[in-house]
Amino acid sequence: MKSLWIALTTAVVVSTPLAFAQGEQGASKGAEVKAQDRVQTQAPRQNVLEPSYLARALNLSEEQRARIEGLWKQYRDREEAIRRDTSLTQEQRLQRFRQNRDEYIRLVRSVLNEEQLKKFEELLESEANQTSTPTNMRFSPEQINKIREITQRYNALRNQIQQDTSLDAQTRQRRLQEINKQMLDEIRSILTPEQRAQWDKAIKKDKEKSESKEGEKKDENKNPPSTGGGSNGGS
Question: What is the pLDDT of residue 78?
Fold first, then answer.
């Protein structure tokens, strides 16, 4: 589940680009923290709804781009208002975010011609196909803070296990796997029902990928590549 651990870190970084950029000087220096540092330097995935992206992808006219930029500003203003509304519960806030996004998409469609609309739908479908992994999940500020606390706590535990010289390699690996599972279960508990469904799908996909790689390794061990040499019997 190591790949999912790193993917989760990326998910939080994508949700708030500066989420892990501040206040991390006292964090663990273990291997997973180093992996997180590498993840943070990756460029965030391009938002297919941004006017600059749509202008290139759909070859918008100047008039179309101006109209969509206006819609985008309204969309972002509404998003900020939702974010600042402290009367909303976590699920209500996420629902408002989705409704706001759907409304923006509806208005963008009204600006496009038939050919552009077809391409736009393809972009949306492509983005939807990528949302089965935690990397593309969007978390509320409350969830981000909680996930940050959970990952920092488990990073410290992992670092302790990695530095425990009394453990043999097999025991250390087993303990690390247990820690990973506990962390993922704890994070799952703070997700909304919709996020849990997406999370479970990602867990299953990650597990199948890991099992596939293990199977390939076993096949390689059973059938090592030929060295090209051979012995010719003779008397």
Answer: 93
User: Token pair for residue 113?
Assistant: 């011609």
Mean residue pLDDT of the chain comes to 75
Same domain for 111 and 81: yes
Q: Which residues of 89-123 are buried (b: 16+ CB within 10 A; e: fewer)?
A: eeeebbebbeebeeebeebbeebbeeebeeebeee
Domain membership flag for residue 112? yes
In this structure, the answer to whether residues 139 and 87 fall within a common structural domain is no
What confidence score (pLDDT) does residue 223 get? 65
Asked whether residue 124 is assigned to any structural domain, the reply reads: yes
Torsional sign, CA 167, 170, 176, 179: negative
Same domain, 89 and 152: no
For a pLDDT cut of 90, what percent of the chain falls above it?
A: 26
Tokens 């943070």 sit at which residue?
A: 40
Structural domain boundaries enclosing 104? 51-134
Which of 4-13, 38-47, 64-73 is predicted with the least confidence, judged by mean pLDDT?
Answer: 38-47
